[in-house]
Design a protein that fits this description.
Elements: E1 8-11, E2 26-30, H1 35-49, E3 70-74, E4 94-98, H2 105-115
Antiparallel strand pairs: 1-2, 3-4
Length: about 120
């Protein structure tokens, strides 16, 4: 519902007894967005979802990897307006990776700032 397309199921690569996890067990979902769906999701993320995050003071400008991709974690999926709170069994978080084809993380930071991503001041 959040992404607007069917997700791919991810499975555990190996068994971990402490997490009661078996190899091949379904553990999550992932979606890759490109084109108009990606821009629509990014617009909703910036203008609707991020302002609804509790105690939000801005995103960290240090969450870039060496390739210039930005990663952010959201602890509760209920900040998305598409989610019906009454139908939830439990709240889950998610990781969002914004892939940017830039040579340096400073170029990626500048692009995301111009798109309207609210970064906190270092």
């Amino acid at each position: 519902m959040i992404s607007g397309q069917k997700p791919m199921v991810t499975q555990a690569r190996k068994s971990v007894a402490n997490f009661k996890l078996r190899k091949g067990q379904n553990i999550g979902l992932k979606v890759t967005l490109r084109g108009p769906r990606m821009y629509e999701f990014l617009d909703r993320l910036i203008s609707v979802v991020i302002p609804r995050i509790r105690d939000f003071r801005g995103l960290s400008p240090r969450s870039f990897d060496q390739a210039g991709n930005y990663n952010l974690g959201i602890s509760e999926q209920i900040v998305f307006p598409e989610i019906n709170i009454e139908k939830l069994e439990f709240t889950q978080g998610m990781n969002i990776t914004i892939g940017v084809k830039a040579r340096r993380s400073s170029d990626s930071l500048e692009l995301l700032k111009r798109l309207g991503v609210p970064f906190r001041q270092p």
